[in-house]
Amino acid sequence: MSHHDAPIPYLARTRAWYLALGYDNPYLWARHNDAPFFALKKPLSASTVALITTAAPYRPELGEQGPGAPYNATAKFWQVYSGDSAADHDLRIAHVAIDRRHTTMTDSGTWFPLPRLRALAARGLLRLAPRFHGFPTNRSQRQTVDVDAPELLARCRADGVDAALLVANCPVCHQSLSLAARHLEAHGIATVVLGCARDVVEHCGVPRLLFSDFPLGNAAGRPHDPASQELTLLLALNLLAEAETPRTTWQSPLRWPGPADWKLDYANPERVTADELARLRDEAETARLSARALREATLGQEARPAVCSL
Prior knowledge:
Distance between the termini: 29 Å
Largest sheet: 8 strands, mixed
Strand content: 5-15%
Oligomer: single chain
Structural class: alpha/beta
Protein name: Glycine reductase
C-alpha cells in the first residue's frame, strides 16, 4: 500500500514530531482493547440524534480565528457547552492542530454539519435533538472521563437523545470524542465518531467510526462540496443503524482531490528545515504555556495532565 492509500499514522507521526521539537516525554494516548456497544432500539427515523462538536463559538475579541489563522489558545473552551439546534451558529476550529496547509477552513460544513443534519431531519430521516453540544479538546484524559463525559451524558439525557454523531478535528479531538463516545455508549446512547485520524480513534476503541481519509478538519465532508457532505452524514447514519458489533469502522469512498502528498507533510520533521523546526519549537512552547495557564485558570490545578502535553 502506497502513501496515497494508507491513512496517516498520527500516533507515530505526532510522537516523532514532538521528539524533534525537543519534548522527550511524549504524550500517552488512551488505549482500550474493548469497546461498549448499544444498538438503537428504535428505527432511525424515530430516533433523536444529537450533534457533538469540538469547534468553538467565534468570539472576535479573542483574536484571529478565521481561515488560515494560526493556533490560538485563547479561543479554546474548557467546559461542555450547548446550543440551539434550530439556529445557525458561527463555530470555528482555529484553536486546534488541524491541517492548515492542505485545507481551506472556509466551509464550516466540513466540521460542524448542523445545517445539513437539520435538512436530513426535515426529510424525516431522523429526529434532531433540540441542542447540539460542544465537547472540550482536553489532553487530560482524567478530566475528559471523570468530568466532561458525564456532563455530556447528562445533557443528552435531558434532551431525550437516542444517538449521537461526534465530529472530530485535531488528533486530541479524536481522542476526546472517542472517550466521550465510549461513555455515552456505556450508558445507553448509540454513537458514531466521524473522524480523519483513524489510528487515534481505533487505538482508543469506539463502538462505531466513520473514517474519511481527508486532511484534519474535514471529518464531515469535503469543503464546498455539498454532495460529499450529505453522503458523509448519510454514511454515518447508516453506520449508526446497521453496525452489529463494537469497533466497527466504515471508510468513506470519497477521496481528497489532487495529489495525495498532503499525507507526507503533516507533522513530519523530515519535511522541514532545522531553522523551521527551531521556530516551530518556540511557537509550540509559547502555545503550550498559554494553554496551560488558561486551563488552570478555568478548571483549577487538578486539571493539569499527568503526562506531557502535545
